[in-house]
């Protein structure tokens, strides 16, 4: 076992990395995008772009991480040979910390609705009202609880923390999704939802807005650009075949996103059949936070007898999805503090968690001004630019022989494969250009 930690098995890494990728971006974001962008037409374009755009960037992070066996700051510093790489690494640590700052607030909301499914069932009305009411005290307490859960897992390290819990949480997440899909599909109105999800409107496939949205979803749902996959890659054994490992992670991530759509979109049409309003003023399916915190809870309320049980299972799912991502985010700055500053893991985890919680507190106390601003600054501006820079590091700064030699570690015959003939060109020329175009479109 490596002194700095290493995943004990291929299965453990796939579940941990897929868990990092499978977060609210899949369970919440993907169905929202489907609802907003023509149903099955969006699904079709997303599936294509996930492998055309996101997979090559994912591979760049994994290769850099495993080759340099370091945190993001040191790994990029080693590739560049100067302070520029380290500066990019620190930029990544700051970005992922800011993402975790708002993500933990949303994670706290998931805990609130999960707990409310229990308190409403037992008739604790006052507690239920506090849990679903938007108050500063609720947001602070439950955000702190979410940070506590995240820090507890990361304190255990790679094998006893991240891998151990990912192997437990990810199968549970998939089981709950499948269970809920089966239940929702038996309800009146579900067939119409399945039709909206699976029958594409091909007239929308080439819509520029749909293409940009699909690229963004494919990129962000895999946790790319902020160093989570780079750090996880640094814990992979040199014996592993990286291209197939990366493909496995991408497939699990895409699969969970597609499964989430199979649950959420039919559930919305079931809600409509039960008298819940699912269309906004413009006649579009309701998305964003209203979908998770208004439409679906209203649906659960209309289901007699098992409604609280369905709500309990659904928000348990949301908490698991939140946690599997948050532990990977916290690991990025923790790995830097442990390796570069020689801080003990326990001290690094709890001190960084407290600092990021302080930022979350600042956002909560100035919610209307800061919450949307931090989301936009990190996920729409900083993250795609970081992804583009990582492609430049893999394709331009790091020499081609360095890439090839690292890939040969787990697959000696990689040079003659289709992957090696295509991927270096993709990551060097196509990915940076496409990501830059996506960034410009989102800014404009």
TrEMBL record:
The keyword Protein biosynthesis does not apply. Keywords: Membrane, Transmembrane, Transmembrane helix, Transport. It is found in: Membrane. The keyword Metal-binding does not apply. InterPro entries: Na/ntran_symport, SNS_sf, YocR/YhdH-like. The chain crosses the membrane at residues 12-31, 43-67, 88-115, 139-158, 165-184, 210-233, 245-269, 309-336, 348-375, 381-398, 418-440. It is a multi-pass membrane protein. This is Sodium-dependent transporter. It comes from Alteromonas arenosi. The lineage of its organism: Bacteria, Pseudomonadati, Pseudomonadota, Gammaproteobacteria, Alteromonadales.
């Amino acid at each position: 076992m490596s002194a700095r930690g290493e995943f004990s098995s291929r299965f453990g890494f796939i579940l941990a990395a897929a868990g990092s990728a499978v977060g609210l971006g899949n369970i919440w974001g993907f169905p929202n995008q489907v609802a907003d962008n023509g149903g099955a037409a969006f699904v079709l374009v997303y599936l294509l772009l996930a492998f055309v755009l996101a997979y090559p960037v994912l591979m760049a992070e994994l290769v850099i991480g495993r080759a340099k066996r370091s945190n993001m700051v040191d790994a990029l510093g080693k590739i560049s040979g100067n302070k520029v790489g380290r500066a990019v690494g620190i930029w990544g640590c700051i970005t992922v910390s800011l993402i975790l700052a708002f993500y933990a607030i949303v994670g706290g909301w998931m805990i609130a609705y999960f707990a409310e499914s229990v308190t409403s069932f037992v008739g604790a009305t006052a507690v239920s009202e506090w849990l679903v009411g938007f108050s500063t005290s609720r947001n602070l307490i439950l955000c702190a609880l979410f940070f506590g859960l995240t820090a507890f897992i990361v304190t255990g390290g790679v094998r006893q923390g991240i891998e151990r819990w990912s192997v437990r949480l990810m199968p549970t997440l998939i089981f709950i999704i499948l269970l809920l899909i089966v239940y929702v599909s038996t309800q009146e109105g579900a067939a119409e939802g399945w039709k909206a999800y699976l029958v594409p409107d091909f007239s929308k496939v080439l819509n520029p807005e749909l293409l940009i949205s699909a690229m963004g979803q494919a990129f962000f749902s895999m946790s790319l650009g902020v160093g989570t996959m780079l750090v996880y890659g640094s814990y992979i054994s040199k014996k592993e075949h990286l291209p197939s490992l990366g493909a496995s992670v991408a497939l699990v991530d895409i699969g969970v996103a597609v499964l989430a759509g199979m649950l959420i979109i039919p559930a919305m049409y079931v809600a409509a059949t039960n008298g819940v309003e699912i269309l906004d003023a413009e006649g579009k399916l309701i998305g964003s936070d209203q979908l998770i915190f208004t439409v679906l809870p209203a649906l659960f309320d209309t289901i007699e007898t098992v409604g609280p049980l369905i709500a309990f299972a659904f928000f348990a799912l949301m908490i698991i999805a939140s946690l599997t991502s948050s532990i990977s985010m916290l690991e990025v700055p923790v790995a830097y503090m442990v390796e570069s500053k020689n801080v003990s893991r326990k001290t690094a985890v709890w001190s960084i968690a407290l600092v990021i919680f302080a930022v979350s507190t600042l956002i909560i106390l100035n919610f209307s001004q800061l919450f949307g601003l931090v989301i936009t600054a990190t996920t729409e501006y900083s993250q795609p630019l970081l992804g583009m820079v990582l492609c430049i590091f893999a394709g331009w700064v790091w020499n081609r022989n360095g890439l090839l030699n690292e890939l040969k570690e787990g697959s000696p015959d990689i040079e003659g494969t289709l992957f090696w003939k295509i991927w270096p060109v993709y990551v060097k020329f196509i990915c940076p250009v496409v990501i830059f175009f996506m960034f410009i479109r989102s800014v404009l």
